[in-house]
Design goal:
single chain, 151 residues, alpha+beta, 60s Ribosomal Protein L30, Chain: A, 7 helices, 40% helix
Length: 151
């Protein structure tokens, strides 16, 4: 098979639209990285929780050559604890901001090559007890209690 030389149209397309990428949807979801390169990933809601995930801390220790990618669309107040953690373990990090794309991913630790780790997601640590959820549902609103007294 003979590869053809790039044409003027190819150069113009690259200039206008940028380099063609493999798996663009996957890259948008995982903050510019590919699933096969990821060591660990947290959702935005996990990043917003108090404290840091010990799994992320351990991964930063074990993988100092990986890069921490943080969702730049999130508030810095949530991301700062992970930035400090990356700094402590001498892991480079980047804020990835793309206003046009919505992703539920808040943090990714990834290499620039494939590692094919099977499980990259961390289980939520703040799973509330089922009892707490049922108590919340039975709570009456102020308006409904006033309405009962009036009628």
């Amino acid at each position: 098979m003979v590869l053809s030389k790039p044409t003027i149209d190819d150069y113009l397309d690259n200039g206008i639209y940028g380099q063609k990428q493999t798996k663009p949807d996957e890259r948008r979801k995982f903050l510019g990285s590919l699933r096969e390169r990821i060591v660990i990933a947290l959702t935005q809601s996990q990043v917003r929780e108090k404290g840091v995930y010990k799994e992320v801390q351990e991964s930063l220790k074990k993988h100092p050559d990986a890069k921490l990618l943080l969702n730049g669309n999130m508030s810095y107040s949530y991301l700062s604890k992970y930035i400090k953690l990356a700094d402590t373990h001498h892991v480079s990090f980047s804020m990835v901001t793309n206003k046009e794309i919505e992703t539920d991913i808040g943090l990714v630790l990834a290499y620039d090559h494939a590692i094919d780790k099977e499980e990259i997601y961390v289980k939520k640590k703040s799973e509330k007890a089922p009892e707490a959820k049922t108590k919340q549902k039975t709570k009456k609103s102020l308006f409904s209690s006033i309405k009962k007294k009036l009628f």
